[in-house]
Amino acid sequence: MLDAATGRTPPVLAGIDPYDTATVIDPYPFHAALRDLAPVVLLKDYNVYAVGRHAEIQQILDNWQDFSSASGVGIQDIRRPGKFRIPSRLVEADPPGHTEVRAAVTKILSPRLIRSWRDLFEREAAARVGEMLDRREFDAMEHLIEPYVLKVFSTAVGVDLPRENVIAIGEMRFNQTGPDNVLYRGAMERAEPYLDWYEHSVDRVGVLPGSIAEQIYVAEDRGEIEAGVAKSLVRTLVGGGTDSTIAGLGACFHHLARSPGQMALAVADPMLMRTALDEGIRMESPFQVIYRTPNRDVDFAGFTLEKDRKLGLWLGAGNRDPRKWDNPDMFDLRRNPAGVHVAFGTGMHVCIGQMIARLESECLLTEFARRVKTVEPAGESLPRPMNQMRQLRSIPLRVTPQ
Ligand code: HEM
């Protein structure tokens, strides 16, 4: 627990709106302004606090006693009338409720189960990379990353994931966690035709035998998970693990193509690709921001944070904080930032699926480094702007084989 309140209010960060579309597309000036002004600032237009320095983000994520997840990890306080929605029993829960559910899911996502998917992931990676080598020029999102992740993750999790549906629903979900703005409204409109699919996408009848989803339903049957919770848990896993891994791999390919020296290192030693995902998501954190809410007036970093006023932790800013990293804007495969960057969160809610995301990425990226000699941009990468998630829509690439 922290000291008694000092009464000092964090300074207002004015003149830059993190949820403006142009800022969402290029958030780095906002990140710098946020980090430079103070350890905690106030975003007046949204009536929320914001934190962009690595050390303070970590401290807050490690302090669930004072900074709760139960009012939602997006900008809206989901306990408020008009904003109410049923919270995820994992991401948007505090102990003791969180502890029990997390233990049940951790038991299912055992290292043994995850290792059992390696053959499938490697086979699929080999097929996809082979196809790209035949083409020589391709869109890494549409032709490589999306089909690969949608195939391997949907098999592991046990839920069918058609591309158009995933994209439309992902855009809805990762805009919904931001303010009611033009990005949010556009995404809601595009998601409309897919809402019925979304509602039934994780129903028990459709899930694959032996998959994560089936095991969660079985855990509910056995009473290891409270009755009625399995479906929303499967939804949390699918929602947490699909778009984020696609975004993270996108960041890796985007930067590899723009860093010939790094690609040469990977070609010489494909094992370097085992930690490439961590460097990719440090550079372009898929979850740019996650929220917490002070449970009481809390004294933090010299300021008093008011009870119930939401606090945005800008993971993307912390992951390029020069107080923490040397050459923070450089994509460096030898950096190996795993366990230090905050793109998977940290503390009690640290990403429960990170080993799956790492295995998916390792298989695809090591295969790429074994068979490709050079990779370069074949055009500009295009953004898919979302309030919360940083993801590219298109990454045109040109490759030469080894
Ligand atoms: C590159 C890919 C991924 C990134 C960047 C990512 C990022 C994150 C972050 C930042 C959190 C912390 C949220 C918080 O503290 O409020 C988190 C939690 C979580 N992630 Fe991931 N994730 C990824 C992949 C996955 C995968 C593949 C799965 C599913 C198998 C998954 C499922 C979850 C779940 C269920 C939680 C909530 C855990 C809890 O609250 O105890 N994630 N993830």
Automatic annotation (TrEMBL):
SUPFAM superfamilies: Cytochrome P450 (SSF48264). InterPro entries: Cyt_P450, Cyt_P450_B, Cyt_P450_CS, Cyt_P450_sf. The keyword Transmembrane does not apply. Coiled coil: none annotated. It comes from the Bacteria. PROSITE patterns: CYTOCHROME_P450 (PS00086). Keywords: Heme, Iron, Metal-binding, Monooxygenase, Oxidoreductase. It holds the Pfam family p450. Belongs to the cytochrome P450 family. This is Cytochrome P450. It comes from Ruixingdingia sedimenti.
